[in-house]
Amino acid sequence: MAIAPKTAIAGMTMTDKPQPEMVRVSTMMPPGHIRTPAYLRGKIGEIERTLGPFHNPEQLAYGVPADKLPLHRVRFTMSEVWGADAENPDDLIEAEIFAHWLTPLEAH
Amino acid sequence: MPHDHDHDHNHDVPHSHEGMSSSGHPYRADQDQPLTYWQNMEIAMRELLIEKGVTTELEVMHTIDQMDSRSPADGAKVVARAWCDPDFRARLMADASEASREMGFDIGALKLIAVENTADIHNVIVCTLCSCYPRNLLGFPPDWYKQRAYRARVVKTPRAVLREFGLELPDDVTVRVHDSTADMRYIVIPARPQGTENLDETALAALVSRDSMIGVARAASPE
Question: CB–CB of B92/B115 below 8 Å?
């Protein structure tokens, strides 16, 4: 998959393979108008691209002032999302997830 | 899934066909029941907006007409242009909304991402949370796109779902499922079929179906 990450990593030389930025989706289950699908909560993926900033739909839906947040497209493998039940472990699911749902993983 | 609606109809059990069309489908019932809460709310809101001069009946009708005039044929023209013009293709992959506007399509505030099928990648689009679809370019989504069966199954067993549409993918092709969860909408740029080197953009666009732009079909081969 030849999709370059958005930002270069400090100290990287031209010959280093860019490291994807890995993130984990929060497991929180708040009530309300939530655009993070439950099947992706707690899962680890890589940032495919970053979009926005867009207004937080969780606030927009209630007519309160809405923060503008980065919206990340996160790419997950089927094996990460479905475990042993994956139809084909290397197939991919990508979804748009607002920044406040994502925690960066330590460098790996 | 050529038959894209539920058939709650069992011919093993004797039953009356009164109220059925000649093809065996029930007629749509007359809407004699009282308005629901939300129907009342919509009518009240619309009448207030008109009364206060925010919009007019004509503007409402014009917007509906404009929505009805959009169709997959518009998206097919975008795909055919991308097949023929490498510079346009690059602009489309960078910003599909701007590239669509450049072709003259009035897509409003639609924020569109184009994803491209190649020899190694097959893309398919879904909205698991509701029914997000690039309506401002492609018009209304097919009924199956909005149903729970498609939405739940295509993220878990996309290959099985695509097989039901008649699309068998080799094991060495990666399936990339895109869940339209937030602000963006998606269009699949299907692979250009073989044997189309001599076709012009108009002839190429005729090969691009709605389903191929959702990713549940390939572009058709020329006759």
Answer: no
Q: What local confidence, expressed as pLDDT, does residue B22 receive? A: 78
Burial per residue of B9-31, b for 16 or more beta-carbon CB atoms within 10 angstroms, e otherwise:
eeeeeeeeeeeeeeeeeeeeeee
Residues of B in contact with A41 (CB under 8 A): none
- Predicted confidence at residue B36, as pLDDT, reads 95
Q: Which of B128, B157, B159 sits opposite A37 (nearest CB)?
A: B128
Nearest CA among B99, B97, B95 for reference residue B107: B97
- The candidate with the shortest Cα–Cα distance to A96, out of A18, A4, A8, A25, is A25
The predicted pLDDT at position B21 comes to: 81
What domain range includes position B152?
71-214
- A42 located within any domain: yes
**Ramachandran bin of A42, using left for φ above 0, alpha for ψ from -120 to 50, beta for the remaining angles:** left
A58: CATH: 2.30.30.50
Q: Which amino acid is at B94?
A: A
CB contact under 8 A, B179 and A95: yes
